[in-house]
Amino acid sequence: MKQKEAVKKSKIKEAWKELQLGAILSVAISFLFCIYAPMELYCNNKGEFWFDGVTLLPVLLVLFLLVFIVCMGILLILYRICVQAYRIGIAVYLIGYLASYIQGTFFVKQLPHLDGTQVDWTLYQGQRWVSLIIWVILIIAVILTIRLAHMERFLVIAKGIGCFLSAVLLITLVSVMITNHAFERKINAYVSTRYEYEFSENENLIVLVLDAADARTMTAMLDTHPEYREMFADFTDYQNVLSGYPFTMHSIPFILSGEWYQNEEPFTDYEQRVYQSAELFDTLEERGYRMGMYEDEVPLLDSSIYRFENIKEAEGLTPSEFLLFMKRELQLVGFRYAPFDMKRYCLVTGASFQELRGTNYEYPTYSFNNARFYEDLQQAEVTTTNDKCFKFIHIEGAHTPFQYDADVNVIENGSYESNMEAAMTITGRYLDTLKAAGVYNNSAIVIMADHGYDVEGNTTGRQNPILFIKGRGETHDTMQVSETPISHEDMPEAFQKLLDGAPGNEVFAYEAGSVRERRYLFYYYEQENHMEEYVTNGEAKDTDALVPTGIVYDWKE
Which of the chain's termini has less CB crowding within 10 Å, N or C? Predict the structure, then answer.
């Protein structure tokens, strides 16, 4: 009897010794994919997510537990089959763990952009080969270790790697969370559609931003679509405009403030300062304007955001669909860490998370989606007030994905030009709505883009956005065209002059034909921590005229 108990205890001890390694690797894998990766991604991109660390962490803990149970469950099944199968499973886990860590840490800069663009995976075959080589090298390394050092020694090595790398990741994550204030609560606010179609009977300043609408493409379309010239008959078309940045994140606060961001401080601090104290907003309040900010990526950083009448307190910030939220977190992590051929199934955008923002809203949440905006516009009931009104409206415009026809129907295989036509249809309907309500004439209107777009898909060709301006009471028989060298840095002054009653062709201090050095800070998508300065004395549309100064602005922790 004692012998049987001794044998049983020995088997239990042996099983525990074996399964201990499986548990360590299962914890390591679960921690990498379910805690470290999503939390690190959140911390380094706080401004792009509506949720905060307090909201995110419980989701990640549940995800961690589920993945651990699955990983450990598979190993237990293999162990019940035979010890050899279990050890093969350990080897596979270690290879997958190391390969994922290496790919997600050192080989992410050349991946496609998660901006909604349809990805042509054939352009990334180099990345595919890198991924395959990493896996092959690790497989060979594990096999050689087992052959040369024998299985028992390999298991010790695997245990050490799992413990060591997890400890490194834990220390790194704690540092990142502290540095980026991961658990700083975001205010419970949401951007609603409230007062979107309430206008002043006296004075309005309306800024409609069509995302990624390029001036070069627009100029060509004016020749093929004469109705656009008629639509903008009362406007001045500024065709020589240079944006400050190639992407929305930096462009919008720059347009509102004229203040350059140069990686000298956390971007969230810069954003917060713009929305707290930009001269434009202070002036509008001093002059008695009610302000509406219809921008679904406006930073909800502190209570100063309530200066905009459509941004209201929410009753709670929780994912509306818990399981779907977890799925998208895994997709986000998978795009970075998964083997190359699996990344195409992990495409996810910020908008995918935005639509899962669940709370009890008194008014619908604002969305910059073209189709939704156009549908709401067609059904809009315009009201008027004696109060002066400011509206800043940012819509999808010509931005990827290319999914609209000229009538704003969602289609397959759209193009940049068809998205531009959709944006013009929306703009025309918006202007007609203002006219029908009798508020068009008393409105200063700016139709602009945050940045341009290169139809060839080159990031370097996004510096020339559209800009159409009409002052209050301004009318023309035909659209005015100006080649005045303008920078987005000039926009706050232009807004000021529009408030003062200036016509659209007199809001800038420069004249057509004047030579002016303009500045452009270029960076690649999701690589904004490294900016390169360019200047030009030529036309904004001429990418070749952009000359690098050699000055770079790098974010240093």
Answer: N
Residue 222 banded pLDDT, cuts 50, 70, 90 = very high
Please, what's the largest Cα pairwise distance for the chain? 107
* Nearest CA-CA partner of 21 in 71, 90, 77, 88: 90
Phi first, then psi: what are they for 255, rounded to 5°?
-60, -40
Mean pLDDT, residues 499-516 taken together = 92
Strand partners of residue 438: none
pLDDT at position 2 is 54
**DSSP string spanning 470-530?**
E-TT---SS-EEE---EEGGGHHHHHHHHHTT--GGGSSS--TT----EEEEE--TT-TTE
Distance of CA 52 to the CA centre of its chain: 16
* Alpha carbons 364 and 312: distance in angstroms, whole number: 11
pLDDT in the model for residue 316 = 62
Q: One-letter amino acid identity for 171?
A: I
The stretch 357-377 carries a mean pLDDT of 85
Cβ proximity of 198 and 384 under 8 Å: yes
Contact yes or no for 448/210 (Cβ under 8 A): yes
Q: What is the pLDDT of residue 116?
A: 61
Q: Are strands 198-200 and 383-385 parallel, antiparallel or unpaired?
A: parallel
Q: Is the pLDDT assigned to residue 149 strictly greater than 80? A: no
Torsion 345-349-355-358 (CA) sign: positive
Q: Which residues have a Cβ under 8 Å from the Cβ of 212 and sit 6 or more positions away?
A: 397, 398, 399, 400, 449, 450, 451, 452, 453, 462
Alpha carbon 200 to its chain centroid, in Å, reads: 33
**pLDDT at residue 167, rounded to an integer:** 94
* Mean pLDDT value across the chain: 89
Give the position of tokens 């803990």.
61
For residue 167, what are the contacts with CB-CB under 8 A and spacing of at least 6? none
Tokens of 140: 């060979």
* 276: alpha, beta or left? (left if phi > 0; alpha if psi -120 to 50): alpha
Q: What is the pLDDT of residue 315?
A: 65
Average pLDDT over residues 446-475: 91
* Dihedral angle sign, alpha carbons of residues 237, 486, 508, 250: positive
447 in Cβ contact with 419 (< 8 Å) = no
**Portion of the chain with pLDDT greater than 70, in percent:** 94
Q: Give the three-state DSSP class for 542.
A: coil
3-state secondary structure of 361: coil
In sequence order, what DSSP letters do the residues of 113-143 get, joined into one string? P-SSPPP-GGGGHHHHHHHHHHHHHHHHHHH
Contacts of 328 (CB under 8 A, 6+ apart): 348, 352, 353, 356
Of 368, 369, 399, nearest to 214 (Cα)?
A: 399
pLDDT single digits (tens) 57-72: 999 999 999 999 999 9
Ordered domains of the chain (ranges, CATH): 2-179 (no CATH), 198-301+369-554 (3.40.720.10)
